[in-house]
Structure formats: C-alpha cells, structure tokens
Amino acid sequence: MQPIHSSQQFDEATKDHGMVVFTTSWCPDCKRLDMYVDELVKDYPQFNWHIVDRDELPELSDAQEVRGIPSLLYYKDGVKQEHLHSANAKTEMQIRSFLDTIQA
C-alpha cells in the first residue's frame, strides 16, 4: 500500500480505482487489519491500494466523512463510490465481503 501524506497525493490516488484505508497507529482494530492487509492487496489487484493515517491528515479524514477507524473507501475518477465504516470493518471476512461487492 502506498502511504498518502498530503491532499495532493490523495487526489492523485483516487483517480483510478483507489482503495484508501484510513487507520491510526494506536487503534486495536487497525493493528488486527495489519495482520492480513497484505493478503487483501494481493487478492484484490483491481484496486490501487493506499493508506492514510487519520491523525496525520484529520481534515482529509473529516472531509471524507471518516468517523471511525479502520475505514475503507473506494474511489473512481476521484469520486467516492463506496465506504466501509469502521463498525463493519472489524474482521477479514467483513472486509472481503465488502471488496467482493465492488465492480472495479
């Protein structure tokens, strides 16, 4: 996954099937996601995977309506298409089910 450190990087990342994962370093659910995220990236190559630390870019997170972490957001042509909110992103199966529904 490519890290995003600025709004400009975010704009570029969301142009072409961008899957953006919003996390933080202190979040227990984010730590659990870390254990299998590499497999997700490998199993879903149709997405361009990126990661944002919510604490590093809080204004971007707010603008994208990220209220909890981890959250996965899918973008096409710079427009948010899908949003898996943190309450539904607790397990690998929940995330895979979400990814399986997206027509990239």
UniProtKB/TrEMBL annotation:
<dbReference type="InterPro" id="IPR036249">
    <property type="entry name" value="Thioredoxin-like_sf"/>
</dbReference>
<dbReference type="Pfam" id="PF00085">
    <property type="entry name" value="Thioredoxin"/>
</dbReference>
<dbReference type="InterPro" id="IPR013766">
    <property type="entry name" value="Thioredoxin_domain"/>
</dbReference>
<dbReference type="InterPro" id="IPR050620">
    <property type="entry name" value="Thioredoxin_H-type-like"/>
</dbReference>
<protein>
    <submittedName>
        <fullName>Thioredoxin family protein</fullName>
    </submittedName>
</protein>
<feature type="domain" description="Thioredoxin">
    <location>
        <begin position="1"/>
        <end position="104"/>
    </location>
</feature>
